[in-house]
Every structure is written in C-alpha cells, then in structure tokens.
C-alpha cells in the first residue's frame, strides 16, 4: 500500500515538473522570436539602420 502511494506522488510530481518546464520553454521561444525580429529590423530596416531610432532603447521598452 505504501509503495502505491509513493508511485502516485511520483507521477504527480513528474506531471507538475513537465508542465512548469513547458511554460518556461514557451517564454524562451517568445524571447528568441523577439530577438530575431529586433536584430533583423536593426540591420535591414532603412529608418532604423540610418539611426533615426534608438533601437536598443526600444527593445528595453518592450521588455519592461
């Protein structure tokens, strides 16, 4: 009986660990996408590349 309860607790812990890890991965993927878009626009958009915008500051404003 005691091993049955331990197995149930272990399964519950694994489930909650997996779901919390999955949400962390999603946040990392969001940050990765933001960085890719920011970098692309910094070097290829004509107005940003010419220096009309402080693009670094805009990134910090988005993250704040």
Explain what you see.
The chain is mostly helical and 64 residues long. The protein has one domain. It is 88% helix and 0% strand. The longest helix is centred in the middle third of the chain and has 43 residues, at 2-44. The radius of gyration is 22 Å and the shape is rod-shaped.
In brief:
Helix content is 88%, strand content 0%.
Please name the defining characteristics of this protein.
64 residues; mainly alpha; 0% strand
Task: Give the proportion of residues in helices.
Answer: over 70%
Main pleated sheet:
none
Q: What's the helix count?
A: 3
Question: What is the number of beta strands?
Answer: 0
Number of domain units: 1
In N-to-C order, the SSE pattern is: HHH
Distance between the termini: 51 Å
Radius of gyration: 22 Å
Overall pLDDT: 75
Q: List the uncertain runs.
A: none
Overall 3D geometry? rod-shaped
Strand content: under 5%
């Amino acid at each position: 009986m005691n091993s049955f309860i331990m197995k149930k607790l272990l399964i519950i812990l694994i489930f909650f660990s997996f779901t919390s890890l999955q949400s962390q991965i999603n946040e990392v993927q969001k940050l990765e996408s933001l960085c890719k878009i920011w970098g692309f626009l910094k070097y290829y958009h004509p107005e940003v590349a010419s220096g009309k915008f402080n693009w670094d500051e805009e990134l910090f404003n988005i993250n704040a």
